[in-house]
Design a protein that fits this description.
homodimer; mainly alpha; Arc Repressor Mutant, subunit A; Tetracycline Repressor, domain 2; 11 helices; about 60% helix; DNA-binding
Chain lengths: ~240, ~240
DNA sequence: CTCTATTCTCGTACACCGTACGGAAATGAA
DNA sequence: TTCATTTCCGTACGGTGTACGAGAATAGAG
């Protein structure tokens, strides 16, 4: 871990993790499964947030001793990786591609957003580098297929997908924070009072005007769609 | 904290934090300062990453006892908030606005990216909701001024700025993760081998093709500029 | 069957974390 | 001087991730 952690580099060997060679037939038979442990961790994160996912809570949830988990994951970081891939199964595509790559890409982004809203811990979990697991790769495969008509080269296609994911994650993180803040009226009021006080100090005329002429409130869906459309319509294949 | 933490809502009262009424003249005189403590925490994060910022390390750095820090910040979460605002001082604008709001917005985004690359912990720190402190507000003021020619209403201008920040943070987080991963050649090679193995299984033809026809490698700067330009050029003032 | 190699289970323990508590020290006002 | 107020900080508590190693279970070898 010495130096890697500084920038959030993955500490997991993807070959070891995703290409395990089917366990040997010797020794005690496992009482649990990676699948069950991962599912329990996901349920916990969905219900109580990422910070509720502790090795002790997960172990309790599956009825195992804490240290037993370490037969299924080398560390907690890897469990997070397993969780991300686990929920990616929900990203399965049903609709076929339309051939209009812009429309197909927008569909991909909307799928991702709905997915992240369903699992609000995802944007945070994705913010550190992950090696894509099998279900994530299945979705990536679909996105690459959507990009086929662009004629972009491999690196460019991968880059577009990464950028799009980062954009969606950033947007959803902001969206979730916003809605969480407004769910506490007292906090929201305190913030409004604070901003009003700042605007009243005379040194922030632009802010003062923006607050005094707010316009009609924007719905998250509309905002997302507008920015997404602008981003994707602006893409070209040069 | 009961329920707020689930979605990462701010737990800090901005009025209390940013509009303190100048300390009373009674009691022992402070040996340290919020400024010094914040600066030490920032130095620590810059040098060793966010996870090196512990109350004990920060206290040691400024030569204080651990619990003394709590005379300057109610909790660690707030210290993070102070850190974010502290470094925002570097975002001071020198160039005047050109009047071309697209160009000015692009300058804003490039400033933000350089800023986040200088403080790689920023994207992660920004991913939870923050109430803007005074220096952050100064920068926001500038961004709003840049958006003035658009004629957008207040909420829309604020939304554009928030989206832009989220976009830059997402991009930089990805960029940093990427460069961190490639800084460890062994890890990068393991990942390449893993992806090659997946591509070779026949069920990922698009991935296989993308990897076999990579095209010329993309530099982070060029990629950022391209996506940014597309996003901003796509914005209009309808 | 016994023996042994292998694997999983998990209690205990350790270092580290954020921070509640409360006494000691320092200061300005009365 | 006395006292209210503020800062300083040692101690302690409940939490975290996980290293270690003893014990239990299983499958193959003899």
């Amino acid at each position: 871990m010495s130096d890697d952690a500084r920038s959030g580099a993955a500490g997991v060997d993807p070959e070891q993790l995703w290409l395990r060679p089917a366990k040997p037939r010797r020794g005690r038979r496992p009482s649990f499964s990676r699948e069950a442990i991962t599912a329990a961790a996901v349920a916990l994160a969905d219900a109580e947030g990422l910070e509720a996912v502790t090795m002790r809570r997960v172990a309790a949830e599956v009825g195992a001793g804490v240290m037993s988990l370490y037969s299924y994951t080398p560390d907690k970081e890897t469990l997070l990786e397993l969780m991300v891939d686990h929920v990616s199964a929900e990203l399965e595509i049903t609709d076929p591609l339309s051939g209009d790559w812009r429309a197909d890409l927008k569909t991909v982004a909307h799928l991702q957003r709905a997915h992240m809203l369903r699992h609000p811990w995802l944007p945070a979990a994705l913010s550190t580098r992950r090696v894509p697991g099998p279900r994530t790769l299945a979705f990536l495969e679909h996105a690459l297929a959507a990009l086929r008509p662009t004629g972009l080269d491999g690196a460019a296609k991968l880059e577009v997908f990464a950028q799009l994911t980062a954009f969606v994650a950033g947007h959803v993180a902001h969206e979730l924070a916003q809605s969480a803040a407004s769910r506490s009226p007292e906090r929201a009021a305190a913030e409004a009072r604070y901003l009003a006080a700042v605007a009243a100090d005379g040194r922030h005329p632009e802010l003062a005007e923006a607050l005094s002429a707010p316009g009609r409130p924007l719905t998250p869906d509309a905002t997302f769609t507008r920015f997404l459309n602008r981003l994707i319509d602006g893409l070209d294949t040069d």
